[in-house]
Here is the input.
Amino acid sequence: MNGWDMTRQKPIEVITPPNVLKTKIGGALPALDQKAIARAEAALEKMSSQFAEWIKEELERLLEAWGAYEAAPGTPVSRNELHRRAHDLKGLAPTYGYPLVGRICSSLCKLTGDEHGEIHAPEKLLKAHVDAVKAAVLGKIMGADHPVGLALAAELEAQSKALIASQIEQQG
Here is the structure.
């Protein structure tokens, strides 16, 4: 049998570690409360009238961070603030009904510190991201299926991916 001696094989022992988390939370997780979910959705619906204003406020914060970045390009403080504002929008934009803005900000976050550490992105590429967010918010490009918005997001992602790959290759 291919030189394998089945008589010398040791028995297999399966060790199951204790589920400490389960004991800490008091057993199995309770089933989702459908009424609580419905109440949360209703509350979100009530607030949705304010989403347009809130997304504009977030855009203003991103534009302020961009202005600070332009005044002091590449400094840790300006870079961190730009990243922070892009990261906030990445998470908030889909909730506010702007998934495309979230996608663009996700790409911007990769250029300003997410995942790959410090990437030295050209100012033009960063500005293109900021301008795309501005255009989407002011143009009320809300859906993730807007053809021009999708093409723009895809191009920004491709440019970012290529830049990140080249810099990782140079570092390694």
In short: The chain has a mean pLDDT of 86. The domain at 49-171 is CATH 1.20.120.160 (Four Helix Bundle (Hemerythrin (Met), subunit A)). The two ends are 45 Å apart (CA to CA). Residues 14 and 23 are 22 Å apart (CA to CA).
